[in-house]
Amino acid sequence: MQLPPHINPPAPKRTAASGRAPVYALVGNPNCGKSTLFNALTGLKQKVGNYPGVTVEKKVGTAYSQHGQPLTVIDLPGAYSLAARSPDEAVTRDVLLGRRSDTAQPDRILCIVDATNLERNLYLVHQVLDLGRPVIVVLNMMDLAAEAGMAVFPDKLAQDLGVPVIPCEAVRGKGLIELRLAMSRPDLALSKHAWDIPGAIAPAVAEIQASLVANDAKSPLIARAESLLLLTDQDSVRVAGSTPLSPRTAEILAGWQKRWSAEGMDWAGTLVSSRYDAIGRIAAEVVQPGTVNQGPSPSDRIDAVVTHPFWGWVSLGAVMCLIFVSIFTLAEYPMNWIDGHMASLSDWVKDSMAPGDLRDLITDGAISGVGGVVIFLPQILILFFFIGLLESTGYMARAAFIMDRLMSRVGLNGKSFIPLLSSYACAIPGIMATRTIEDAKDRLVTILVAPLMSCSARLPVYLLMIAALVPNERVPLATKVGIMFLMYFLGTFAAFGFAWLFKRTLLKGEPPMMIMELPPYRLPGLKDVALQMLERAWIFLRRAGTVILGISIVLWFLSAYPKAPEGATPSEQLSGSFAGMAGHALEPAIKPLGFDWQIGIGLISSFAAREVFVSTMGVVFNAEADDGDTAPLREALLKARWPNGRVLFTPLACFGLMIFYVFAMQCVSTIAIVKRETNGWKWPLFQTAYMTGTAWVLALLVYQVGSALGF
Amino acid sequence: MTAEVQSLLALAVVAVAALWLARRAFAKRKHPGCGHDCGCGPKLTKH
Lengths: 711, 47
Fold this sequence. Notes:
The structure holds two protein chains of two kinds.
Chain A: H1 14-18, E1 23-28, H2 34-42, E2 59-64, E3 70-75, H3 87-96, E4 108-114, H4 118-129, E5 135-140, H5 142-147, E6 151-152, H6 154-161, E7 165-167, H7 176-184, H8 202-215, H9 220-232, H10 236-240, H11 247-263, H12 267-286, E8 287-288, H13 298-306, H14 311-329, H15 332-352, H16 357-374, H17 377-393, H18 395-409, H19 417-422, H20 427-433, H21 440-449, H22 458-469, H23 477-504, H24 526-560, H25 570-576, H26 578-590, H27 597-605, H28 612-620, H29 632-639, H30 651-663, H31 668-678, H32 682-708
Parallel strand pairs in A: 1-3, 1-4, 4-5, 5-7
Antiparallel strand pairs in A: 2-3, 6-8
Chain B: H1 3-30
């Protein structure tokens, strides 16, 4: 439908008027390379991965034109259509439609499309062109299209769409100069997008558009795009989102829908079919299908194994075993190195300073606390190296596919598994990743169970307890790997179990079907993996050098004051200290679990973050490496006793502590993010109560049943 | 450095650490979230 000139104005020159940098929005289907292109344009290090749903919130960066002019680039979550169904897609829709008060409506739009899957990607492009903004189409993954034997003709596509089309390989940086040149053009034309809206629907589009302009204060082009979205989706409330329709517009829309329903007409289907017909004609002219790959592709051959009902599980188990074995074996040397240097530092301070509180604070507080956590840096890095590899190769999406069979039995689908997988690194990005889930109840269930997945902050606790539980010289590596595997399995199994329970009680609903794209396998982007590892190392060290250092210092004070009378033993000093009083106050609740007041201090302090438990043990047990020994804290734990002389860290108590940390909600940051994502305190409080309650009950069962059985 | 001076300095360090932790906790309440501590995404250019 051609628009009359009075409602099809030229692009407003807002950038010149306001003096701000032109704003480009980067949009496209999930996993088409938006964040990779965003990083290439802005020099930032936004997380990328070879699976859909990595980006769930807009990210803003600055790129520079060929002439050095700053250009603001907004990386938006992937969307298949502007008819948003999930919170992350709604972000994309709302930014493009200028609904967000915190984001200026983009002046220009970069539409990135996957050249290997052009027809499907063009649906979003087709909708974006309705917005009437200057558009540049970036034809990404041209190398993969060529490998598949496909011929894609960018010039023909540019001619059909009426906008510049830039072929590109964002991963290798190819086509970026041409793209920057296109972005630098001040005279970027509006699209000549001419789409014949079906005749039966065109009058409704015009009437709703006019009403949106008159009654909802929309600009003419935005009103046209919104009217098309309102007619594409049956749920007008969902389309309107945060900007509810005026009564008059809602009345007009309902009137048309009523009329079409009476006539038995599927207006939404008609609109969508019409778009696909137009797209199909373009794709037929632009893409020459591949001829070289008649048989199964390499990705298909790998998938035959890793998504197999039996071998898929075997593969997943083997991958996890490989990760855990590497964590235990490869990390040993760098851990010894860090430990040795921490011990040397502590000795040097002791040799350099006279005895006193400041010296004790530095050695027993800061070095013991921070050193006890920093020693686990190599293991954290190994974990993230493997997570990065799995994400960049595309295996994560296969893991979700395998899990879908299991997830469907608990009432969720594989789409919930990507947030759960992300939660192995940290529950917070996992909870944010639930924005890709359309159904509100499924999303809430996933949020409620995501922190049960064993995050990297639990790793130091598990490793310390395994070290205390199974000393190196007596137990084979397989036992340690087995215990670690069991902890991860328990968390995952519990997440599924609670999801099943919640879906049948609090949040009843039908299990949804999963439609998930399996991306082709790609060689891992080692640069991205390395950057992710470095970023993680920095985050870990920053936490150690800030929060954990601060807590260790305060904890030293709490364990050193009030001062015990002259001649008191270190144990008596700790027992009478502020920290000791808190631990003693908690002891009645945790004694049935086999934990004493000293462990109680660790449980209280680690509510800030789980790994603080390790630093607290370092402070409380005053662990010091005096001879470069590899595990001084472990030895200090092994020497700890109850007042009656019994060993404190028995295998049963260590196992119970690990079980406690698998289930307990010991993370204030996660509670804060759940509050934000659920808009209130109800669900984070419920989550804290059910998780910590379960942790207490299971740790109690482990200790009491184990003791009764003679362990 | 005498034991008394060490005690005074140690208490000053503890006070600074406690104030910093308290201030940080308060700031978190105004802007709920992890403050990017968890690696959920690097701080990007403000727009």
